[in-house]
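Example 3.
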Amino acid sequence: MKPGRFDSTVLTFCFAFLYLPIIILVVYSFNASKLVTVWGGFSLQWYRSLWSNESLMDAAWVTARVGVLSATIGTVLGTLAALTLVRFPRFPGRIPFTGMIYAPLVMPEVITGLSMLLLFVALDIDRGFWTVVIAHTTFTMCYVAIIVQSRLLTFDRSLEEAALDLGCPPVKTFFKITLPLILPAIVSGWMLAFTLSLDDLVIASFTTGPGATTLPIKIYSQVRLGVTPEINAVCTILIALVTTGVIIASISAKRAELRRIHDEHVALRGTS
Amino acid sequence: MAKSLGPVKRKFSPWTDPSATPFIRFENVTKTYGDFTAVDNLTLDIYEREFFSLLGPSGCGKTTLMRMLAGFEEPTSGRILLQGQDLAGVPPYRRPTNMMFQSYALFPHMTVEKNIAFGLEQDGLQKADIKARVEEMLKLVKLEPFAKRKPAQLSGGQRQRVALARSLAKQPKVLLLDEPLGALDRKLREETQFELMDIQHTLGLTFLIVTHDQEEAMTVSDRIAVMDKGVIVQVATPAEIYEAPNCRYVADFIGDINILEGKVTAEGGAPVSPGHPPVMTLVSEGLQIAVEQECPAAVGDAVAFAVRPEKVRISLDQPADTAVNAAHGEVWDIGYLGDFSVFLVKLDDGRIIRAAQANVSRLVDRPITYGDKVWLKWPLDAGLVLTR
Amino acid sequence: MAETPTSFAKASPSRWLIVTIPYLWLVLFFAAPFFIIFKISLSDTAIAMPPYEPVFEGFASLGDFLSKLDFENYQSLWGDSLYLSAYLSSLRIAAISTLLLLMIGYPMALAMARAPSTIRPTLMMMVILPFWTSFLIRVYAWIGILKPEGLLTAALHAVGLMAPDQQVEIYRTDYAVFIGIVYSYLPFMVLPLYSALEKLDGTLLEAASDLGCPPWKAFWKITFPLSLPGVIAGSMICFIPITGEFVIPDLLGGPETLMIGRTLWVEFFGNRDWPLASAVAVVLLLALVVPIVIFQNQQQKVR
């Protein structure tokens, strides 16, 4: 077999494996029948019943608020952490700091969740909405830190030096030069943080309290009781949201790339 | 790009005037990074309106020296004075120097106009003044039609001009240029060199340029400081650096040169004619060499004789006097450069001497070719003796 | 070159804020909890809420506290074969899954890296996209497929590969767990492999071929050794979280599928034995950290 054909066979199988389950789930959310194996015709009834399912809608609202808040705080903290990692090569306690940034990325969620919970209990903090936000902030900031760090590592420091040289003080330089240029990385860090928060079941389960049930917790408790078309519908909406977001992001990246190519042409021709 | 013909370069040599006060003074400046000494107890004076070059291989400390003047690095010890004022502790954004970066460091998210206006805005100038100044700068570097472009939409040469305009906009007391032409191709580089000289002359500014390109340094500078391993080896005008290097390192670093090791045999010989320096002689493995020079060493000292290839004449015929400053050998290799041909001549004792000959006629087959037995001959004032 | 740039904020006091804020946050919400978890794992189970004895009672009681410290919980971990086998089973499942992921992920990454450069970004995007969809949803999707009356059974019936009275018996077994893990972690394995393989200079293989090395041999002599950093990175990224995995064994595994994450969850939410759960967590943490540290040291010695 030629390598080309081998490669396309491998890719076909792997992508089928990755996508078929999701596609099946989406398709069956439009199934009129309550049985998963029987196709009873196209229907939107599960979406309608979803709309009237108040506890599910509440959970979605909680999740959205937790996501936005923790992603935003996490992005600020993560960006500061990335600046620390890249711009302060030597300061006391740098090694433990680096360790604390990388550890949450591989730490099993059950441990992170449990340890956070025990902290909140030890500090006598009532668990609920805010404890989930703090927990999510803590692990998402590390992801943001990694993304922003990799951008900062390729950042041309002479841009900042040029601004200083032209009379711009350091803090102003950060806001006028550095921040606008690393903004794309910060935005994608925020998006990743938001998605991770949206997705998290384990850490939220440990750190939540009464009245702060997130969507994954809700889905999990229902899934344990079996597959229902209603859950299929929730999942489909979530998939649609995330996919749209990712596609918009990649299209804007593509457009930036096209603009760059256009710019290069303009530069080469010497006219606009 | 029309070459503007500015006024003829004036005779300018304040460094020869003992009463002149230096504009910039590096005073016993040392900069170390851990165990590494980038700049080693260096003292240097630069005068107002001077076009001064720091020349050296990468890692010789020239960039560190410039960055210390700009304020991006603090000297480990020593002082840097600008117009007599100590710059220690003055942050880069309060120094009256501006820098043109090697990478140009144009802000990619701002237009050409905005880039040039950036420094002026920091000074809190009036909008109208800024606008006028930006236009003036655009005119100076001939980029008026490109004001609204982003750096990504410019060619390399245009970017270089924007960087220059931006660093000049604030009328700095000293303009620092870090390898300013390194990213340009050869043709454009040569044109830009002359433009830089024009601009420097018209604006009457002090330019300090860091480069590893000796041709660039020779073309633009009033004076050149050749650096090596954190110290200055020689500070002099381009002509002095080329014709009278003070050591083997400078002689070898600038241009092409033949270096023959030898021993002094006699010093203080009678001058050829009144007003000329005395003649000294040395011997280098049997070659008798005579040089018009005040002897820098004693008889019997090991020295080097250095002579540039273009000052060595090559001929098939035996010269009249073969006793001194003459050698016999065989053409070993020829480098045809168009304007010049360089002949590598293997002497009878095995050493190689290079001789360059201007190709003054349009002959495709040159009279001297591989394997020819040839004579080399140079006059008394062609070479010089180096002790270091 | 010696010209290291100095920090742009060298003279500015705000530099310490940049360091301090995220540092304090991580110390408070990430490092401190681990000390608490360690402390609680050494304390006694109490009936009260919170269901363990208080952590801090002032320094006066410190001596008292130290005298009460014991390794009872660890002893019961060791004594109870359930925990030991849960640890071993977690490591076994993680190891097998990582191997499966390598076997599937490597050809996939290789195929991606060899694809025309115009479609590579799209392929990359297609690998990442499932990662952005919820983990829970992706695992959930497999329940509908694998359960006895699910879609796989129906499909096999339809094509006649299975007698109509039979059903697929994968759901709630270790096999389902493997499928779920491979499915969920495949992007994590493929991406580091792909980035290692993509960097590979194509002329190396041409050089090998030019020097008389057949393609399959060139793969083992050139491609594979050079992709090893990717293999190691991918394996670490997968192995560690799989060991502590909870959702997959809980939703797809059977009652006999023992994994330590699940045991911890049950100990915590089911039995409400917090000190014991903490001890389970500490041991799991050590079981993960110690190999990583040893591995890192080895790596440094090699360099």
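Residues 1-11, 57-62 of chain C have pLDDT under 50 and may be disordered. Chain C touches chain B through seven residues (CB under 8 Å).
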